Amino acid sequence: MTMRANGEGSVYQRGDGRWVASVLDPQTGKRRSTYASTEKAARKALSGMLTRKDSGRVALDAGATLAVYGRAWVADRAGKRRRESTVREYGWRLEKYVYPVLGGRRLRELTALDVEDMLDTLAARKLSESTLRAVRNALAAMLQDAVRARHLAYNVARSSQLPEDVKQPRPVVAPTDEQVARLIRAAAETELASLLAVLVGTGARIGEALGMTWADLDLDARTWKVARTTTRDRNGSVALGKRTKTGASRELVLVPEVVASLRGQRAKVAEAQLRAGRLWVDYDLVVPSSVGTPQDARNLRRDLRPLAAGAGFPGSFHSLRHFYASVALSAVPEASVSKVLGHAKRSTTTDVYGHLRESDASTVAVAVSVAVKRGTAGL
């Protein structure tokens, strides 16, 4: 055993060959231990535990409760390989859904059945399948880092199953050509005109459109390099991200109508900059706020609602992505649509946007009828 002076912890080897790093936690008065396969790894783990101890934080191990471990994970570890907006969402889901049910359970005692019981409890509150899946994903992310830190042997959240009878989201119906056309006409003289033109003409996500800069555009070549999206920091403030949702950039071709709208938008941004004067913060954004900063999509959604209602448009910004995808899938191969939409997996395109438009369904029905009649005639 290697002891350290003044309560600085110890490193020793157990009879089974595993190495142990142990330290007295001043926050709880309990001894915390973590395990490693080599002495070097154990000393590194001890160093991390001592750093936490010296800063007044809990020296974590598998004996910590899920709430204590999870809050420390969100504060110190979760953001090292994830975007701030992702960490914020994970923290919110853990606080709202996980800790009220499992927060007092010790990390090492947690089982897949505990996780499933929690999901059943949440399902009884009529939460949707997507919400339950998001809660499980947040817990799984935290537990996976606990596995990597050798605080757990395996990730019990990953082996847990969602309840079978959960609230299913209503199927999304893509807006019709006429509905989209009415929305575009209604927005022609508003601040949303160029934004809507981009969304309709490219199928981009709202965050990607709000993260578009003039440097990303080549209006003469009619191209847009989609390189980032807007996001939120841990405080919930809107920020300009450094990547797209999937992490990959892509180049889109702009139709002449979108290019014309963007040329007009450049003049509007220049006028806004003159009005703002010294208050202007130059992010080079194509659709900035009144002072040049990234816009909050939630505010724009509020602006869209009365406009959409007046135009008889039964949807949101994201409905325009459904419109684009449904039209594209009826015209070109799925692989091409997947690349344009920026999906990491081709299956996402079909699963999320592969619904038939009513006109497509009618065409399919007629085609099937014709085929059946043709087959019957040959009998």
The separation of the N and C termini measures 88 Å
Main-sheet strand order equals: 1-2-3-4
Shape: globular
Largest sheet: number of strands, sense, barrel closure: 4 strands, antiparallel
CATH architecture label of the largest domain: Orthogonal Bundle
- Tell me the series of helices and strands, N- to C-terminal: EEEEHHHHHHHHEEEEEHHHHHH
Number of helical elements: 14
Tell me the name of the CATH homologous superfamily of the largest domain. Answer: Intergrase catalytic core
CATH fold category name of the largest domain: hpI Integrase, Chain A
List the helices and strands and how they pair.
Blueprint: E1 2-3, E2 10-13, E3 19-24, E4 31-36, H1 39-54, H2 66-76, H3 84-102, H4 112-123, H5 129-148, H6 177-186, H7 193-202, H8 206-210, E5 217-218, E6 223-226, E7 230-232, E8 238-240, E9 250-253, H9 256-276, H10 297-311, H11 317-329, H12 334-341, H13 346-353, H14 358-377
Antiparallel strand pairs: 1-2, 2-3, 3-4, 5-6, 6-9, 7-8
Helix pairs in contact: 2-3, 3-4, 3-5, 4-5, 6-10, 7-9, 7-11, 12-13
